[in-house]
Amino acid sequence: MSEHPLSSPAASKRRTPASPPDMADPHQLFDDTSSAQNRGYGAQRAPGGLGYPNTSASAQAAFLADPVSNMAMAYGSSLAAQGKELVDKNIDRFIPVTKLKYYFAVDTVYVGKKLGLLVFPYLHQDWEVQYQQDTPVAPRFDVNAPDLYIPAMAFITYILVAGLALGTQDRFSPDLLGLQASSALAWLALEVLAILLSLYLVTVNTDLTTIDLVAFLGYKYVGMIGGVLMGLLFGKTGYYLVLGWCCVSIFVFMIRTLRLKILAEAAAEGVPVRGARNQLRMYLTMAVAAAQPLLMYWLTFHLVR
Question: Are 251 and 285 contacting, i.e. CB atoms less than 8 angstroms apart?
């Protein structure tokens, strides 16, 4: 009977084949891909050193590929910059932006006081415009200073009220409303040109500017709005009462305002009060003030039926 050699306990156990280094552990549920990703990231890293493309090299390559178009773009950019600089330098020659900012430097308190002064100018005593180092202060600090905010808003409101009045009378049309706005602007431009020509003929040295005249002449739209609204609410009786009051108020306002601009310059020049030239200046002031009520009636009487 042959004797079999006793097998050792280690030999009786089942040996598990060793897995190759590239294969995962068979007892592991998920594969570890971190090493592969790291190897892929390192393989895809750009030669720039940080993983980003080399933009300078691509830009140089693009320029070398199409140098004509790139030179044209550079020239266009330079030309646009020069044009912008030229416009910024010469814009004040055509549109006085700096001066316009002064005329719109208002606040709520100023607007309230100015509207009260336009409707009740009889109790106001001091009509002098305040100056600071030979420069008039902003309108929000002086109720006597002219502004363009109230005339501009009053003109727009006048057009809207005119459209409302035409609509209540079944006469509204865009053409008629445009005619109303253009006629009001035409009369305003005609007034400004007539006053400037008269000042030139009378040889008046005054600090009145064209923008000042537009501001003073635009204040009449406030009374026109009040007259038309009262006409819509109370008929022609309310229209004539309110418009009549506003006409007298604007007449007084213009007399007391313009005399400081026109007659005060004459006194500073040493012109006699009863001199012929001073009399012409007084007549000019009266004519400008008297033209405001006439235009207020002319531009509103057809809106009330």
Answer: no
Apex 255 CA angle, 262 and 227, nearest 5: 140
Give CA–CA dist 145/127, Å, rounded: 9
CA distances from 183 to 15, 190, 295 (A): 110, 10, 11
Could you give the CA distance from residue 239 to residue 14 in angstroms, rounded to a whole number? 118
Query: What's the longest Cα–Cα distance across the chain?
Result: 166
Residue 128 φ/ψ, nearest 5 degrees: -75, 140
Residue 288: Cβ within 10 Å count: 21
Residue 4, both tokens: 């079999």
Question: Rounded to the nearest 5°, which phi and psi values hold at 50?
Answer: -120, 10
Distance from chain centroid for Cα 290? 34
| Cα end-to-end distance, the chain, whole Å | 145
Query: Alpha carbon 155 to chain centroid distance?
Result: 17
By 3-state DSSP, what share of the chain in percent is helix, strand and coil, each rounded to 5? 70, 0, 30
Query: What Rg value do the Cα atoms of the chain yield, rounded?
Result: 42
| pTM for this predicted structure | 0.69
Sign, Cα dihedral of 116, 213, 108, 162: positive
- 250 vs 57, 87, 117, 223, 288, CA distance in Å? 74, 40, 9, 8, 11
3-state secondary structure of 131: strand
269-301 confidence digits (pLDDT tens): 555 555 667 788 889 999 999 999 999 999 999
Question: Strand, helix or coil at 230?
Answer: helix
Tens-place pLDDT, residues 235-265: 999 999 999 999 999 999 999 999 888 876 5
Please say whether the beta carbons of 128 and 145 come within 8 A: no
